[in-house]
Amino acid sequence: MNSHRDSRGDAPTTESSIDTETDATVLTAFQQNILVILSEEAMYGLAIKRELEAYYDAEVNHGRLYPNLDSLVEDGLVEKSELDKRTNEYALTAAGEQALFDHLDWIFSKYVPGQPAGADQLHERITAYVGGDES
């Protein structure tokens, strides 16, 4: 696999697609955030842009968003379809979903049970999102 980042680390220039079975460690945080957004539902580019701008509390330039979307499409993590002549819709693929799970697995592996500094907070946050009962 030959993947190189630009000087900001945002948009990779790929000589070949990433091997999604290897892992998603070649993805930037920006690209991972796009995958997270698409995990809810398929969206068109400007809707993704708005979600990212709300998260970053800053403008996201088209010149940053669309090359990253194109890279994710090329890597097989996102599927691009045409809604109409001017609008494309982007959807998370099974490989994109697996990349998200792989990243979460890595994050969760860093929280060691018995070390309350992080594990308890992580458990509380997960419980709050899934609505589990702690009793």
Automatic annotation (TrEMBL):
One Pfam family this sequence matches: PadR
Domain of life: Archaea
Positions of the Transcription regulator PadR N-terminal domain: 34-100
Coiled-coil residue spans: none
Region ranges (Disordered): 1-20
Entry protein name: Helix-turn-helix transcriptional regulator
Organism of derivation: Halorarum salinum
Higher taxonomy: Archaea, Methanobacteriati, Methanobacteriota, Stenosarchaea group, Halobacteria
